[in-house]
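User: Let's play a game. I give you a shape written as tokens, and you guess the letters that built it. Ready? Here's round one.
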């Protein structure tokens, strides 16, 4: 598949391969490492339910922080020759935080370092997503964006297998190495992989679409963001309705990704079995993303996103019957079928309907809706758990967000394209 990509497109796709390693670790072993440090009867340790709630709250803190910082950072990165600088800085700090996470000795230190690492990780994605207009053409956006997620799923398996091997050698399984060494290996391998695979993009990226830098850039960035938000709200109904739809349906996506291991753990399922199913899900997600990449050559983007929304709605409802490891495996398979596609197609579709020279700013706003949604989803999980409800009910309750997202995306699709975007979506 890489043969179909240009040098710049290939370098861009490779960053998905790099950062997905951190995503995979966050979806699987990081919650386990956290609970190993947090749960217990010793002073300073907490119960399993509180650990789940605090982990969800930590994710919510990340989403709020990046939602507030994203638009400003994105607007500043839109200035000439600035996007690569912002991107490289975010990656470097995120990788550093990832590696340091492995050396945490208490759950409080662990969660604080993780929050910082994930904030920089999320910031790098704001800049990365906005690079799509610079590395490819409009007619290839769906395909290239889908390839990013597809190869990210497969590429993330390489460092993850090493991290998983270190975990299996740890105290929970074979008891060959200590928990601390297991964590150090897992986080270090992930961080080093993340940085190495990012180097081609740092070397080859050139910012084509930009705005000229001005004095008082930070102050003017805030003013400009306010004007842009007002413009979207008043004049560009297509973008506004899409962002509302995205806010709603991505809620469930992000929440399920962030809490998948917590779901299995709270059901009392075997930890190794969960991780194996999640690893298999990466392969399913790889195939699913490639299938939707092929479909994007023939069909419009919006109907493909709607199919993904319906698939996730079914996954949420299926969560009501979860009770054993095989049910969890079916759930993971369903998530994998649509996980990469709904995100990649949303990213490429948004790139088509926004002004390319302001892509950083617009993707900063995009992240407000993305991270705000994740905040609500995590709050639902935490709220249901703290109230004594089951994880089954918490996940099933996310279905309402997919249903509403479906409606608003249909409304957005009916709106005309605003002049100044990259062009009209045709197939």
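Assistant: Ready! My guess for every position:
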């Amino acid at each position: 598949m890489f043969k179909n990509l240009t040098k710049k497109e290939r370098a861009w796709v490779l960053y998905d391969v790099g950062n997905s390693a951190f995503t995979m670790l966050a979806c699987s072993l990081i919650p386990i490492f956290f609970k190993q440090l947090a749960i217990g009867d010793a002073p300073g340790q907490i119960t399993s339910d509180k650990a789940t709630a605090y982990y969800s709250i930590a994710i919510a803190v990340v989403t709020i922080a990046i939602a507030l910082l994203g638009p400003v950072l994105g607007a500043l990165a839109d200035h000439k020759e600035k996007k690569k600088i912002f991107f490289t800085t975010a990656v470097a700090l995120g990788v550093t935080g990832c590696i340091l996470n492995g050396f945490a000795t208490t759950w409080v230190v662990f969660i604080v370092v993780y929050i910082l690492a994930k904030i920089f990780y999320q910031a790098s994605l704001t800049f990365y997503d906005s690079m799509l207009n610079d590395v490819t053409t409009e007619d290839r956006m769906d395909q290239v964006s889908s390839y990013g997620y597809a190869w990210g799923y497969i590429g993330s398996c390489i460092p993850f297998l090493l991290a998983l091997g270190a975990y299996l050698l740890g105290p929970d399984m074979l008891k060959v190495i200590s928990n601390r060494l297991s964590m150090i290996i897992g986080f270090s391998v992930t961080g080093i992989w993340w940085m190495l695979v990012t180097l081609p993009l740092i070397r080859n990226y050139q910012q084509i679409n930009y705005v000229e830098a001005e004095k008082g850039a930070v102050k003017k960035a805030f003013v400009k963001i306010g004007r842009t938000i007002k413009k979207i709200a008043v004049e560009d109904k297509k973008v506004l309705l899409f962002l509302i739809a995205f806010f709603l349906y991505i809620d469930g996506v992000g929440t399920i990704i962030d809490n998948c291991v917590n779901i299995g753990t709270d059901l009392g399922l075997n930890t190794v079995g969960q991780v194996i199913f999640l690893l298999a899900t990466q392969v399913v997600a790889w195939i699913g993303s490639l299938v939707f990449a092929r479909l994007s050559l023939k069909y419009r983007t919006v109907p493909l996103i709607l199919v993904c929304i319906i698939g996730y709605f079914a996954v949420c409802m299926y969560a009501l019957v979860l009770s054993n490891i095989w049910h969890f495996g079916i759930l993971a398979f369903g998530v994998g079928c649509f996980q990469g596609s709904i995100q990649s197609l949303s990213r490429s579709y948004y790139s088509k309907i926004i002004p390319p020279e302001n892509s950083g700013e617009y993707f900063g706003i995009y992240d407000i809706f993305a991270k705000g949604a994740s905040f609500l989803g995590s709050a639902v999980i935490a709220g249901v758990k703290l109230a004594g409800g089951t994880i089954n009910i918490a996940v099933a309750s996310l279905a309402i967000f997919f249903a509403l997202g479906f409606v608003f995306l249909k409304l957005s699709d009916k709106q005309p394209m605003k002049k100044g975007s990259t062009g009209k979506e045709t197939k």
